[in-house]
Automatic annotation (TrEMBL):
InterPro entries, per database record: Fe-transptr_FeoA-like, FeoA, FeoA_core_dom, Transcriptional_repressor_C
Lineage: Bacteria, Pseudomonadati, Pseudomonadota, Gammaproteobacteria, Lysobacterales
Protein name per its UniProtKB record: Fe2+ transport system protein A
Domain Ferrous iron transporter FeoA-like: 12-88
Domain of life: Bacteria
Keywords of the record: Iron
Key word Iron present: yes
GO molecular function: transition metal ion binding
Length: 92
C-alpha cells in the first residue's frame, strides 16, 4: 500500500513500519461497518496520539508482528496491523 502524504505529514500502515522505528497512531481503519477487529484494537489502546513501535516479527519477516504501545506488547497478524495508520514524522 505504501506511504500516504497528507498536508506534509507522512502516514504508513503499521504493517509496513520498519522494526525499531517509533511512530504515533493516527487512526484505526474499519475494514467494514462495525468491524470487530478494528474495535478490539481501539479497546486495547490503539488510539490516536499513542506512541507505537514494531519491536519484532516472525521468521523471515512473517507473522506475527510484536508491537509495543507504552509498556504493553501485542502480537498482531500483518492483516490486523494493516488497519492501523501511523505518523512516522511526529515521533521521529
Amino acid at each position: 500500500m505504501g506511504t500516504i502524504l497528507i498536508q506534509g505529514v507522512r502516514y504508513v500502515r503499521l504493517s509496513e513500519l520498519p522494526k525499531g522505528i517509533t511512530a504515533v497512531v493516527s487512526r484505526v481503519d474499519d475494514a467494514h461497518q462495525a468491524d470487530p477487529i478494528a474495535q478490539r484494537l481501539r479497546d486495547l489502546g490503539f488510539v490516536a496520539g499513542e506512541p507505537i513501535r514494531v519491536v519484532g516479527n516472525g521468521p523471515l519477516g512473517a507473522d506475527p508482528l510484536l508491537i509495543r504501545i507504552g509498556s504493553t506488547r501485542f502480537a498482531l497478524r500483518r492483516s490486523e496491523a494493516a488497519r492501523v495508520m501511523v505518523d512516522e514524522e511526529v515521533a521521529a
